[in-house]
Each structure stands twice: as C-alpha cells, then as structure tokens.
Amino acid sequence: MARTFQLEIIATDRVFYKGECEHLVITAIDGLIGIMAGHEPLVTSLPTGELKYMVDGVWKYAAISEGFIQVMPDKAVILADSCELPEEIDIKRAEEARQRAEEKLRQKQSIMEYYHTQAALNRAMNRLKISQKHFK
Amino acid sequence: MANMREIRERISSIQQILKITNAMYLMSSSKLKKARSALEATEPYFYKLQETIESVLEHTPHTAQMYFDRRTDIPDDKRKKGYIVITADKGLCGSYNHNILRYADQKLDEAADIDNCYLFVMGQVGRMYFQRRMKSGKQAYVDGEFLYTTQNPTLYRAREIAELVLDKFEKHELDEVYLLYTDMVNSNLQEPRTLQLLPFSRRHLGKAADGTLKKLPKASFVPSPEKVMDYLIPQYAKGIIYGAMVEAFCCEQQSRMTAMDAATNSAKDMIKELSLLYNRARQAAITQEITEVVSGANSLEDQ
Which among B19, B50, B230, B259 is least surrounded, fewest beta carbons within 10 Å? Predict the structure, then answer.
C-alpha cells in the first residue's frame, strides 16, 4: 500500500472528491505536475485541462476548468469552477457550446469578449477531448 | 356598530390580498427549495475558498503583484473605496432589504470621505435607494451602468463583476474593494456581512501552537508568486462573489417566504375578527328589525 495523502477537489457546485489519494497529476500553467504524499508546500493555478488521481492503484480522470491548488505535505486542496468525470460530461452540450463559441469568434468583438469566447471554447474543447479520450 | 356593507367590502378586499400573499408564499417556497440546494452545493466551496486563501496568504513570499499594492501613499480621506452591495430585485421580503441597506449606510458613514465612495449595487431595490440618495445631495456615487440582477446567480455574472472591479483597481479608479452581502447563518438568522476583496495583504507572522508568534514557512509558487497570483486572485474574486450571490439569494427567498407566511396568517386573523364583527352587526340589524316589527304591531294593537 502506497503512502497516501488527503485530497479534496471542490467545485463551485459540489464537492467532487474528498478522500485518500496516492498520486495526483495536474496540469498547471506551465506543464504537468505530479504530487505524492510528502510533497513540499506548493501553490499554483490550474487552467482548464485534465486531471488524474490514483485511488487504490486505479487512475481516475476528470475534466477541470479554471481553479487553483494548494499542496501541503499531508494534503492537497483543489478549488475549481467545475470538475467532471469523463462519463458525466454532456457531449451534446459541450458540442453546442463549442459551435456557439466558434460562431462568436467569427464576429467582431471587443478584446474582453474575445477572451471570454476563447475561454468558453477552451472549456468546451477540453470537455470533448476528455470525454472522447476516457469514455467510449 | 360598523356598517354591514363596509365590513363586507373590507373582508372581500382582505381576501383578495390574502390570495396574492398566499400565491407569493407558495412561489417563494418553491424558489427557496432551489436556492437552498444551490446554497448547499456551493457552501463547501465558499468556505473552503476563504480558508484556503487565508492559508495561502500566510505562506506567500514577498510579491510585487499589483493586487497586493496597498497604496499606503494615499491618505485615508483620498482613498477611493468601492462597495459591492447585494440587495434584492423586489420588495415584499420583510426586513431583508432594510437590513442590508442600513448596514451599507453604516459602512459608508464609517468611511473617511463619502465623496470617494463608489457603490456597485446588485438588485433593483438597492440601486433605486442609493440613486435617490445620490440625487438628493452629497452621497456616495452609484455606478449607473452596473446593472446586474440577483436572481438565479451564475458563475458567468460573477466573473463579469469580478473583472469589472479588478479592472477598476488596476486603473487606480478604486483603492479598496469591499463586498457587502447577507449571510445565511441558519434559516432563522441572517446577518449582513462585509468581505474585503482588495487589496490583498499577506501575513508575515502567525500564531504558533504555544501562543507565541512565529515566522510562517513560505510555500513555493510555480512558476512564480506573481504569475500564480495573476490567475489566483481573479479566480478568488469570482468565487467569492458567486458564493456571496448564492448566499444572498437564498436569504432573500427565505425572508420573502417568512414575510409572506406572516402576511397570510395576519390576513386570516383579520378575516376572522371581521367576520365576527360582521355577524354581530347582522345579528344587531335583525334584532333591531324584529323590535321594530314587534313595536309596530304593538302600537297597531293599542289603537
């Protein structure tokens, strides 16, 4: 049995995961970071991306959008806008969101609107990617 | 003794109001159910966010990040303070609006110079209140373009608001930002609260287990404290605003439900009282008529 640490993943609309975890891999701003028990204190932010964590020797995957993580030697807390398992992703909705965002990007927009649309597109693409990758 | 017709009219008008308040009660109770489940879902996030930020700030090394700029060179009476106030869109919810508005007034009075206060009011009731006050004299400035509803809070709306205030802070249009909202302590107790959003201040010292102050260990920030804070603070602001919106919306529905329940009950009491009066008046009228008939008959017999 590998050493474990307490992992909490909390999204704005629910507590996604709370319990022991052996290994956590996150996508931070500048690349992947792997976290195991006894990691040095660390704070970093998470852009929209993929997340995987190992519980009882099994990898679990999740789609996460915008959040941050605080790591302590014995625990890690992830706070994010949303977090979903691949099988929970509504492919139809994500596909619609992607089309809507692409359509919007073709229009003339202010810089702010452009960033918003890009972020929305990013989220939709991420959902689609993760659901296709891990759930068939 | 009151007129029978008057009483009857009064009763029927009360019955009309009763129908309205009862309908509003039913509506708000179903809305409350929704708001409450949203609150239950968001509360862990809201509290964890505050807790985590607190501990992150304890472990933050020195940073020149712009949101940590306390602007100490600006004197107290020149500081531009921004207040985000969350009120309801409609009235008829007991003392909910009254409480948060009075609380906001208190905060404004405490501010060194009211001319440098800027209000960002969510919800129609609060906006009208402060705009009326602004026109009537020297009062805090209300941003008229800040038009956001408090109904059904969404993350999207919270993001827009967070971006707006952060942008104003960056441009030095605001030096401090506070968030005023109503917190749901439990279903019977609601309290207006203030959260300071900006600027951030990190803590150098923390209380150790034995009560003495000690220097806190610093965590590492990847890639750099500034970079992380660039992402983390807008994220935090958005989360906090969203959480506060959810709390306030739930409070609004709760107090509307309570107020409408009370109104329905007192309308029922009034109807009860009035129908007693009405019956009495009717009885009196009948008695009087009988007396008149009898005395009329008697006088006929006497002749």
Answer: B19
> What is the CATH architecture of B58-256?
3-Layer(aba) Sandwich (3.40)
Domain range list for chain B? 58-256
* Mean pLDDT, rounded, for B176-198: 86
Task: Tell me whether B42 touches chain A (CB under 8 Å).
Answer: yes
The Cα B198–Cα B175 span in angstroms is: 8
User: pLDDT digits over B50-69, tens only?
Assistant: 888 888 887 777 777 778 77
User: What ipTM was predicted for this assembly?
Assistant: 0.86
One-letter amino acid identity for B93?
A: C
Contact yes or no for A29 and B232 at CB 8 A: no
User: Chain B contact for A114, CB < 8 A?
Assistant: no
Would an 8 Å CB–CB cutoff place A30 in contact with chain B? yes
Q: What is the pTM of this model?
A: 0.86
CA distance A49 to A26: 8
DSSP chain A: ----EEEEEEETTEEEEEEEESEEEEEETTEEEEEETTPPPEEEEE-SEEEEEEETTEEEEEEEEEEEEEEETTEEEEEEEEEE-GGG--HHHHHHHHHHHHHHHHS---HHHHHHHHHHHHHHHHHHHHHHHH--
**Which residue(s) pair with B10 in the sheet?**
none
